[in-house]
Amino acid sequence: MTLHGYWRSTTTFRVRAALNLKGLAYAWEPVDLLAGAQHAAGFVAMNPAQGVPALVLEDGTVLTQSLAIIAWLDALHPEPRLLPEDPLARARVEALSHVVAMDIHPVNNLRVVDRLHDVFGATQAQARDWMIHWMERGFAAAEAMVAPEATFTLGEAPGMADLCLVAQLYNARRWEMDLAPYPNLRRVEAACHAVPEIAAAHPDTHQTPEAIA
Amino acid sequence: MTLHGYWRSTTTFRVRAALNLKGLAYAWEPVDLLAGAQHAAGFVAMNPAQGVPALVLEDGTVLTQSLAIIAWLDALHPEPRLLPEDPLARARVEALSHVVAMDIHPVNNLRVVDRLHDVFGATQAQARDWMIHWMERGFAAAEAMVAPEATFTLGEAPGMADLCLVAQLYNARRWEMDLAPYPNLRRVEAACHAVPEIAAAHPDTHQTPEAIA
């Protein structure tokens, strides 16, 4: 299968980490969001939502939306589990995942920040303030939802919520956000970075040649 | 169980419809988002993310995030199914749900639009344009993802994606958006409105006395 994504995209990071944890090999097809490759006709035919990631299977089936992809991977390759079998435990993992994937990430998405520039003439500093604001709100909620006694967000192994968090904290550090108020989240982040499969999914290991040059 | 929500909230609409389709009785506890009730200490203790809906079970367990709640309801009360058992079919329903629940709704959320007013001095017309813009993008994607031969988005019975869509189209109509370019979505909307359990969940049937007065 082939993962279409952007090296710095936090949603792509989530799926790379899930594929690695499942031990699944995949081809990597970069989609340059800054150059608008997600709006090209060929990509739109594959994913009408014009976003990354998209996972294309050997038979041509296309899966989109990072959390839907991760849940599908988890159903087909249940070890290690990224979503608990118990419905209530699963609902907790999903709710924490959604604090990142719904309350933070979409509001800070590249296209949204671009629109702040285009429509409201937002400066770079205002764009940064915008992103930090939503991360502060979301991280405060997540900090309260993490089990303080666990290694990861809600247990002793990384799951969907951990992948959402480690990716969003990567973004937070990119914008030099103060993470001191979130000791639980920083603990989870460190635990994730210590997992080789997650470390191997980090954006820095998938930079485009242009970004490295 | 008790559903804490706001009458006009599309995420609350989704969960009301799911509860009705499952035939589950619940108490209704209004949370006045316009008055800031979601930021009151008692509510924050229940849901640190300070959003609606929240579903409180008889034993005090609190479930948050509308799609996590719906998936939990579906696991405990599988008939009628809102998410297919087959992993690939489920991934398609989730991906379409997320086009609404991640790509549209969070960017148009009350708190985001409030911030456009506060930080960028957005006028009412600019706020409306902002909301319409994200709905146009998301609806174009959703229109292409709906199965044209099906009654609902992806089959012959309403599922999670239909609940997300009918709620978002309610919001679109509130802002007098032109829905002519989306015949598939309008067909799904009409099919949903013809389902008594979904019709009974409509925001107009849950208005606060102040809103009615």
TrEMBL record, chains A, B:
Gene3D superfamilies: 1.20.1050.10, Glutaredoxin
Domain of life assignment: Bacteria
Domain GST N-terminal: 1-81
GO cellular component: cytoplasm
Record keywords: Isomerase, Pyruvate
Gene Ontology process terms (BP): glutathione metabolic process; L-phenylalanine catabolic process
PANTHER family, per database record: GLUTATHIONE S-TRANSFERASE YFCF, MALEYLACETOACETATE ISOMERASE
Protein name: Maleylpyruvate isomerase
